[in-house]
Amino acid sequence: MTVTPHTPPAKRRRLASSAAAAIPEDILVTEVLARIPVRSLLRFRSVCRSWRAAIDGADPRFVRRHIELSRGWAPPCVLDVPCEPRLEDHWGEARSKEMEFRRIRHGGDAAVDAELMLALVSPANRFTAVTDPVHCDGLVLVPTASGELFVCNPATREVLALPPGSPSVMRGRAVAFGFDPSSNTYKAARVFYRRLEVVEGEGVMECDVGHEVFTLGAAASSWEPTDDPPYYVVAQIRPICTRGAFYWTAVVGRAGDPRPTELLRFCLRDETFALAAEGLIGDRDTLTELGGRLCCAHARTATGVDIWLADDDGPSTEWSMAHRIELLRPVVHSVLPLAADGDELLLSVDRRVLYKYSAASKAVREVVDMQRVPDLYYGARPPLPLRLVHHAVPYVESLVSITRRNY
């Protein structure tokens, strides 16, 4: 019997159940349901109890399988988190009632697909300027300039405000976020400054830096202290999590020059710090994960960017240059590699424009101006202000829950 839009819901469920009965349950879940977008899966929860249990995270294998298959979807997705910039006097902070999460896709042609996945509304203008969101397995950690931290799954529309961490003499510093394979949990980490001062007459900076970790879904919903970092951590470059470790930029010794130069590795398994690379990081460089490997985009010149990849399987971190790119115009702030699609790299430049770089032809082309993406809503929403900053992160949708251990 053919199912039409006029088929009663009860009959639809009976027909779906009879069709599913011909397919083994394990194949139906792991090979069919796991390939379906989250929005559809949330509607399918009412079909039967076994589907509801899998979709709600009772089977961790299904959640992981869905993530693995979502990573293979083409073209790769980007999540854009636009926000008001900080005020001109740099002491104030822009405040907004909304925090938006917009998914952007760009295929091989000129077509661009944009979707507003979630808009969080605060009646009290609670949201301050966003500082470098971090993505992992469909979850997005959003730090704000005021020091508040929010974790969101835009696909399931689940949001969690993390509790305050230890007091710090500097607010709004970068926060690391990622998956810890040794404990099968998602963790956030933050550095905080107990003391930070400039020694008069010597031109050097002295500080007392702490480090703490928060585990999502843990019984104890609080930040747990770790050993202090051995060096002065410079949080102006977004830290990254890959292969069971957080990577922070740091200055070895007394920080007379506060620009980052070293890479500090925090192992999540044994919670120890180690120096991963010396003299590699510059103040206009960015860190990210690319193809499961630690990646550094090094600003060689005003228009030249070198993409370095790390191999840290051994006792030390070995780096190799994967791409040397010449952009179409000078870089004002930074270049952030977002995703690899075949022989092409998707890059976010100056928190506004998305570029694609072809490794085969060495050509660079502009594909999306995120400032113009509101036009793709076809009048459904008013245009966003042109002064917005656009934080782009690589994105894959998932069913991972923020408040439950279902990993």
From TrEMBL:
SUPFAM superfamilies: F-box domain (SSF81383)
InterPro entries found in the cross-reference section: F-box-assoc_dom_typ3 (IPR013187), F-box-assoc_interact_dom (IPR017451), F-box-like_dom_sf (IPR036047), F-box_dom (IPR001810)
Gene3D superfamilies for this protein: 1.20.1280.50
All residue ranges annotated as the F-box domain in the record: 23-64
Entry superkingdom: Eukaryota
Protein name, as recorded: F-box domain-containing protein
